[in-house]
Amino acid sequence: MPSFDYESYASSLKHFFNSVKTFLVTLYYFCYPYSMIARTLSTISASLLAVEKFSDISPLFFIGLLQVLVPHFLLDLYINGVNQVFDFEIDKINKPYLPLPSGKLSFTNAVFIVVSSAILSFLLSSIIGSQPLIWSIVLCFLPWTGYSINVPLLRWKRYPLLTAIFMVSCWAFIFPITFFLHMQTFVFKRSYIFPRSLMVSIVFLSLYSMGIALAKDIPDIEGDKKFGIHSFSARVGSKQVFWVCVSLFEMAFGVAFVAGVLSPTCLWIKIITSLGHVCLASILMYQTKYVDVTSPASTRSFYILIWKLLYAAYFLLAFIR
Q: What is the reported pTM?
């Protein structure tokens, strides 16, 4: 009898851990991991721009970093989740592998995750009390809610120009500026400044995020047309939009290369930042030879590649001064 009880307990425990593991994997794909990773790296990169001396890399710095990472992790979960909730029917065509259309996550649970994530994000940022952090949460929440929610006067994703404006605003302006100011003014208690390094990041990310805004719709033309979402790719054609995106990415790498060469820092930093961006630009151009713009699988693979190149670029941008 005791042996039976132990085996039953062990089986229940194993079932519990398997359920938790399955849920976490489902949640991972529900939150669009590639964009969440990029936003995390953007936080680290912009925060490092506020570092003036080696002693700034202290427990205070890492606490300040966590103060941004946790509320924005929850906000990312909300933004990506609410988009999937209202794109449920479209994703059955464009992205049937996602947790909602594939049935791995119920609609009720998805709505609960989305709502609770938004509430916790606002609650945590209010408790922390950093004005740049609060503004970052608010300025991201409002446009991306309007982008996804399908009610009168909203559902702004139907308008490609608005979509591009939102993406550029968040990735090129709101994220780097508010993350930098949080570290500069709230954590380090220093005065407001806008250093050259921050300006370089803004210019780079303006070009790169515009390319991402255009590229994200290339694999989704079929579903977008069916549900009346007239993206640039659906209007102009995937091939033309693809090469516009490539041009924007290469221009961004070019800006970072010049900034690295002209950076008033030591020689090894100039070499790392300039040659690093040349390598990223070369990888991008090389991979374009293998992209079939008529294949959703091929263009989706390219879309993931440009996010991965952005991950590396965030690391290099943190060194530019």
A: 0.86
